[in-house]
Design a protein that fits this description.
alpha/beta; ten-stranded mixed beta sheet; 13 helices; 17% strand
Length: 388
């Protein structure tokens, strides 16, 4: 995957070359682990939350259930192969596997990718995205309850982290830009010194014979001087929209009344049963976020197919209503146009995400839209007419 034909060119088989390198974030959570057994009960996975979700207001589309791939278990290689086949057939170049390193060698949810790396299957491009955040009870209303704390012990731990990922960086399936392995950091804002970390890892890459690293930071603060060392920056949806959402005082007041959200003191006094999720129309998202990403080759779009994290968060969640494959295709089209005039290797568009089901944030087929979102993606990447 080191080279990409120019937009509009044909590949060796005579079909149109992709207009963008679409990379989808991938959650390796769908299998039991001891930690989740301890915190949430024996056998817990994200499917537990997905299956027990219920509507929280009239017209709320819950539960959202999987279709073609079913309630898969990511310990099974057949499930991982089926995902890759589906993604490949619909224009996704590769998966960005969320990767968890909490410091001191502490890892979690590492089994699916470890088996992908060791087995060589599926033969589908990948990169890693470091989800460097403390796991807390923020989404279920108890932010002070810490499950696993993200730590940054220092240079030795940074070196151990790099060496643990070196086999992935050397793998032929590794997604590269100009020959350099891509690595993504989810929360550079929370690192003690992102610039020093970047310098250290670049030295380690050179010492171990790599041609460099293509480092991507995820942030909604694009003008932060500490992020100057990143090769590229991309946004973090849905926060890019939620934190800058449009609307005047009257509009926002109407929304708060509809959601019965009058502040923590009121809701604590009168009971959480009154509260409803925060709701936004998905049609507002694309035009609202279009101007937030600065111009220039260094800034990579990140597109959200949908959002509804009420299976995890209940009435504290956020819901993007009325998301359809057609609207997603329009949102993606804007992102593809933004990168169209860039060098082939840098025509990168992220999609968040492939399979974050408990946040309503997925491309995989579901019982309502089937393959609709994937069909829309395939059409936009190939430059074809959108499906009906």
């Amino acid at each position: 995957m080191d080279t990409l034909p120019p937009a509009g060119a044909e590949d060796s088989a005579g079909s149109a070359a992709p207009r963008a390198r679409v990379l989808a974030f991938y959650l390796p959570q769908f299998h039991p682990i001891p930690e989740n057994d301890l915190w949430w009960g024996k056998g817990f996975t994200e499917w537990t939350n997905v299956a027990r979700a219920r509507p929280l207001f009239p017209g709320h589309e819950q539960p959202r259930l999987p279709a073609d791939l079913g309630f898969y278990d990511l310990r099974l290689p057949e499930a991982r192969e089926a995902q890759a086949d589906l993604a490949r057939a619909h224009g996704v170049e590769g998966f960005c596997y969320w990767h968890y390193w909490f410091g001191g060698g502490r890892r979690i949810l590492e089994r699916p990718f470890a088996e992908v790396l060791a087995s060589g299957r599926p033969d589908f491009p990948f990169c890693l995205a470091w989800a460097n955040q403390t796991w807390s009870g923020v989404w279920f209303g108890d932010p002070k309850h810490i499950l696993i704390r993200q730590t940054y012990p220092g240079l030795e731990d940074e070196r151990d982290h790099f060496l643990a990922l070196l086999p992935a960086f050397r793998d032929p399936r590794q997604i590269r830009v100009d020959g350099k392995p891509m690595f993504i950091i989810f929360a550079p804002d929370e690192m003690p010194d992102a610039g020093a970390f970047i310098e250290h890892w670049r030295r380690l890459a050179a010492e171990h014979g790599l041609p460099g690293l293509f480092l991507v930071g995820m942030t909604n603060r694009f003008d932060t001087p500490a992020f100057a060392g990143f090769d590229a920056l991309t946004a973090i949806p849905p926060n890019d929209f939620i934190n800058t959402r449009p609307g005047g005082a009257l509009r926002n007041l109407g929304r708060l009344i509809r959601e019965r959200h009058f502040g923590r003191r009121f809701n604590r006094l009168f009971g959480e049963s009154l509260r409803r999720p925060r709701r936004f129309d998905y049609a507002e998202v694309a035009p609202a976020v279009a101007g937030l990403l600065p111009p220039g080759e260094r800034y990579l779009p990140c597109v959200l197919p949908n959002w509804d994290n009420t299976p995890r968060s209940g009435p504290r969640g956020y819901v993007f209503e009325n998301a359809t494959p057609a609207l997603f295709g329009r949102y993606l089209r804007d992102a593809v146009r933004r990168v169209a005039d860039r060098p082939a290797q840098r025509r990168i568009v992220f999609v968040k995400a492939w399979n974050e089901w408990a946040e309503g944030n997925y491309l995989e087929p579901d019982a309502r839209h089937g393959l609709g979102f994937l069909a829309a993606l395939k059409a936009e990447v190939a430059g074809e007419s959108p499906p009906p």
